[in-house]
């Protein structure tokens, strides 16, 4: 029997932007792989890239939440569906929904920010189109992995704030 962490690490999903050949794959919770159809990358401006990557991020989040919920045991899922059981839980969930997380590529070509991992915004620096496709894809991978790590760290800090036992 696998642990919840192992089940979550085992989630792998792929999403595509409707109407254009751009897709992303998420695996092991923080590994994002971006793929463009033949010639698509070279036809897009930085603004187009921002818009399409923001849509991909939203699709990945929604699908990850669905897969996450499916990975939970029936007993645990039932308690989740019942909702938060205390005011502290409600306060924690409200605070988690307001968390701002940021991830950036090493050279700041791509910056991904989110509020509660739901309101996502992708910024592509001017001049990014000079990068080769594989270089740009690598920058997106760096930024999304950094965003996810930042979010996980902030949630862990929030859990300590709300649920740590007083000393």
What is the mean predicted local confidence, pLDDT? 86
Helix and strand sequence: HEEEHHHHEEEH
The low-confidence parts are none
CATH homologous superfamily classification: Nucleoid-associated protein YbaB-like domain
Q: DSSP helix count?
A: 6
State the oligomer.
single chain
What's the number of structural domains?
A: 1
Helical fraction equals 40-55%
Strand percentage = 15-25%
The largest sheet, given as strand count, sense and whether it forms a barrel, is: 3 strands, antiparallel
N- and C-termini, Cα separation: 35 Å
Which fold name is given in CATH as the topology?
Answer: Ybab, Chain: A
| The CATH C-level class name | Alpha Beta
The main sheet orders its strands as 1-2-3
Radius of gyration: 18 Å
Shape: elongated
Query: What is the name of the CATH architecture?
Result: 2-Layer Sandwich
Task: Write down how many β-strands occur, each being a DSSP E stretch of 2 or more residues.
Answer: 6
* Strand-pairing-aware structural class: alpha+beta
Describe the structure.
- By secondary structure, the chain is an alpha+beta fold.
- The protein has one domain: 2-Layer Sandwich (Ybab, Chain: A), CATH 3.30.1310.
- Helices cover 52% and strands 20% of the residues.
- It has six helices and six strands.
- The strands form two sheets. It has a three-stranded antiparallel sheet.
- Strand 5 (110-115) and strand 6 form a beta hairpin.
- The chain is elongated.
């Amino acid at each position: 029997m696998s642990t919840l962490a192992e089940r979550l690490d085992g989630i792998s999903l792929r999403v595509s932007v409707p109407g254009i050949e751009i897709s992303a794959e998420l695996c092991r919770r923080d590994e994002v792989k971006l793929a463009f159809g033949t010639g698509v990358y070279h036809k897009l401006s930085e603004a187009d890239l921002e818009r399409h990557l923001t849509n991909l991020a939203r699709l990945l989040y929604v699908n990850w939440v669905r897969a996450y919920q499916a990975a939970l045991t029936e007993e645990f899922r039932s308690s989740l569906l019942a909702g938060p059981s205390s005011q502290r839980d409600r306060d924690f969930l409200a605070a988690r929904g307001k968390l701002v997380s940021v991830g950036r590529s090493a050279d700041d070509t791509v910056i991904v920010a989110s509020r509660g991992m739901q309101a996502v915004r992708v910024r592509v620096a001017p001049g990014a189109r000079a990068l080769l496709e594989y270089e740009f894809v690598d920058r997106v991978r760096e930024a999304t992995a950094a965003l996810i790590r930042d979010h996980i760290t902030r949630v862990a800090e929030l859990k300590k704030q709300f649920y740590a036992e007083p000393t």
